[in-house]
Amino acid sequence: MARILGIGTATLDVINTVDGYPPEDAEVRALARRIVRGGNATNTLVVLSQLGHHCAWAGTLPDGPDAEPVLADLRRFAVDTGPCRRTQGALPVSYVTLNARNGSRTIVHYRNLPEFGADQFRLIDVDGYDWVHFEGRNVPETGIMLQALAARAPRPAVSLEVEKPRAGIEALFGHADLVLFSRQYARARGFATPGDFLAAMAESTSKSDLVCTWGEEGAAVLSAEGRLFNGAAYPPPRLVDTLGAGDTFNAGVIDARLRGSAWDETLEAAGRLAGRKCGQSGFDDLAPRNEPVC
User: Fold this and answer.
1) Are 61 and 10 spatial neighbours (Cβ–Cβ below 8 Å)?
2) 3-state secondary structure of 221
3) Which residue from 216, 211, 203 is spatially nearest to 263, judged by alpha carbons?
4) Which of 131, 89, 95, 127 is nearest to 110 (CA)?
5) Nearest to 132 by CA among 46, 255, 247, 4
6) What is the distance, to the nearest Å, from the Cα of residue 161 to the centroid of all Cα atoms in its chain?
7) Residue stretches of the chain with pLDDT short of 50
8) What is the reported pLDDT for 241?
9) CB distance 215 to 102 below 8 Å
10) What are phi and psi of 149, to 5 degrees?
11) CA 84, CA 60: separation in Å to the nearest integer?
């Protein structure tokens, strides 16, 4: 059982399920409405906690009662919020339109809260963690945190999620042992296949393992040793909710690597876990059935 620190966001997700995505300037009735905790880093942590790991979250929340839904949900999944920073501002909110016909989601995000920074990171005793996972955001401050970890000996393993293009984010890639790219980012860089994309990224990140998800086409890994692995997708019998599928896949990769799994086994385990997530709403009960946890 590993100790994992995740650094990134927590949000309140307002999810409206609709019967088909509405056209612009339309008025439609929602089939259902849920208000739940969201955020990439915290999503990944609640999955890792279910897989048997001790998880902690470092991020920012506003002072006052607005943060309670997020804190309560993280407590429910036994995620330690001790490293969290409380400050003035508003709880970030993601307004999600979930298409019941195909499980796709469209997100409008509102944020008026300072990001977690290097000054707060310096207060954390990282010697107590086996793995540190970063969202690829707040690039200058994240760079400082990654460099601080790189200077430690010994240090925990480090992963970096790269979901979307951000100014200067490429400078972060070489400081992580594992970089987890999304199809969204790869396409924004002009690539049509994960293999070609990973080969291009390896030119500047030769010491990192590189992973790229590709939706219904699965995922690929280019290892630090230069070997390419391809993994299939494992869609559920009925597609229900793709919100957080990538975060779940990332948790599956981290868990499998902590277990010492080979890359082909890692891709299968993470793909099956993400497929299970897509077949349900939310993140409850995602631990594999009849499989021991760490």
Assistant:
1) yes
2) strand
3) 211
4) 95
5) 4
6) 6
7) 291-294
8) 87
9) no
10) -70, -40
11) 6
Q: Can you point out the beta strands (E) in the chain?
A: 3-7, 11-18, 32-38, 54-58, 60-62, 79-80, 85-87, 90-99, 105-112, 131-135, 157-162, 178-181, 209-213, 219-222, 228-231
What pLDDT is recorded for position 293? 37
Strands of 11-18's sheet in order across: 32-38, 11-18, 90-99, 105-112
- For residue 11, the cross-strand partners are 38
Question: Coil, strand, or helix at residue 91?
Answer: strand
How far is 127 from 130, CA to CA, in rounded Å? 8
Q: What is the DSSP string of 122-191?
A: TTS-GGG-SEEEEES-SHHHHHHHHHHHHT-SS--EEEEEE-S--TTGGGGGGG-SEEEE-HHHHHHTT-
What residue has token string 């897509």?
Answer: 278
Residue the block writes with tokens 């088909």: 20
- The span from the CA of 260 to the CA of 271, in Å, is 17
Report which of 112, 109, 171 is spatially closest to residue 143, judged by C-alpha positions: 171
Query: How far, in Å, CA of 72 to CA of 59, rounded?
Result: 15
CA 241 to the chain's CA centroid = 16
Phi/psi of residue 68, nearest 5 degrees: -60, -40
Pairing of strands 157-162, 11-18: unpaired
Which residues, at least 6 apart from 75, have a Cβ–Cβ distance to it below 8 Å? 81
Burial class of residue 208 in the structure, from the number of CB atoms within 10 Å of its CB (0-12 exposed, 13-18 middle, 19+ buried): buried
φ and ψ of 194, to 5 deg = -65, -35
Return the half-sphere exposure (C-beta side, CA atoms, 13 A cut-off) of residue 254: 39
pLDDT value of position 289: 61
Give the integer Cα–Cα distance in Å for 45 and 4. Answer: 8
